[in-house]
Amino acid sequence: MGKQFTFLLTFCACLLLANCRDGGKPSAPATTKASATPFVTDSIHLTEQGSHGLCEVYIDYPVSGPTEAVAAVREFVKSILFEDGGQSKADDAGELVRAYCDECQEVHRKTLEQMGLSQVDAREAPEEGVELRLVCNTPLFVTYEVYRYSYITHGGHGEYSNYGVTFRLRDGHRFGDDIIATMDDELYSHILAGMREYFGVKSNAALQTLCTADLKTRPLPTLPPCLMADGVRYHYSIYDICPFEEGDPAVTIPWAIALPYMTASAREMIPTN
């Protein structure tokens, strides 16, 4: 997986109510009241090539919506951008991306200094990037996908991570390990099926040859699953289950299959017809 930042420097307003990247339009289940206030974001993107390296950041930043959900997502954005959690940072998207790139440049400067270099050719310079994209926006929950990468000069390859995080709109609750209550062989068989599809193999034996983890132990991703339009998504990080070159497989378990294994609070997020 290569560097995935090819966007123009831009500010744009995005209204994504009830719109998910997977194409679904879930309606609210009868047991949970849908939010009457849409969750609205501004999209901001900044790329900066400095003398010590490159920084790139993209955020779908919440500007209005249910109060607690907006606050929770803003705090989450800051926690991703800044090592100290960004507690001292203002709730201004432009200031946040500027501060993020400033910190990246300082980290790059120190990195080169430790290597005894004042600066390097742009092709060899450090790079740091992060995306926080709103990939599912429903009347009950929103899900963000977080992608970040880091390339240190003279390294063999960069590092990246990619995962989803779900927030309940009515109170801003961030879902994590409270989505799936139990995991057994039956549910894991659907995860294996998704991984076989991802890798393009037809048997678990063939899948095992691509994996470093023992599939019989039911290895799960390092990070919790998230909710999407059509089900529960598991996203393996690099090295979770296979070598770097094999990527980071993502598997979505359809609602109908995941339902018996879900917690009560997560079950309330399931769309109904």
Question: SSE layout and pairings?
Answer:
Elements (H helix, E strand, L loop, with lengths): L9 E6 L3 E2 L19 E11 L2 E12 L2 H15 L11 H22 L12 E11 L3 E11 L7 E10 L16 H15 L4 H7 L15 E3 L2 E5 L14 E5 H4 L5 H4 L6
Parallel strand pairs: 4-5
Antiparallel strand pairs: 1-3, 2-5, 3-4, 5-6, 6-7, 8-9, 9-10
Helix pairs in contact: 3-4
Describe the structure.
By secondary structure, this protein is α+β, with helices and mostly antiparallel strands. The chain is 25% helix and 28% strand. The protein has 6 helices and 10 strands, in the order E-E-E-E-H-H-E-E-E-H-H-E-E-E-H-H. The strands form 2 sheets. Strands 1, 2, 3, 4, 5, 6 and 7 form a 7-stranded mixed sheet that branches. It has a 3-stranded antiparallel sheet with strand order 8-9-10. The longest helix is centred in the middle third of the chain and has 22 residues, at 93-114. The chain is flat, with a radius of gyration of 20 Å. It starts with 9 loop residues before the first strand and ends in a 6-residue tail after the last helix. 34% of the residues are buried. Residues 1-19 and 21-30 have low confidence and may be disordered.
Distance between the termini: 37 Å
Strand content: 25-35%
- Structural class, please? alpha+beta
> Which residues sit in consecutive blocks of at least 5 with pLDDT less than 50?
1-19, 21-30
**How helical, in percent, are the residues?**
10-25%
Which geometry do the CA atoms define? flat
Which assembly state applies to the chains in this document? Answer: single chain
- Can you summarize the main beta sheet? 7 strands, mixed
Instruction: Give Rg in angstroms.
Output: 20 Å
Instruction: Tally the beta strands.
Output: 10
Total helical segments = 6
Task: Give average pLDDT, whole number.
Answer: 82
Give the topology string: H per helix, E per strand.
Answer: EEEEHHEEEHHEEEHH
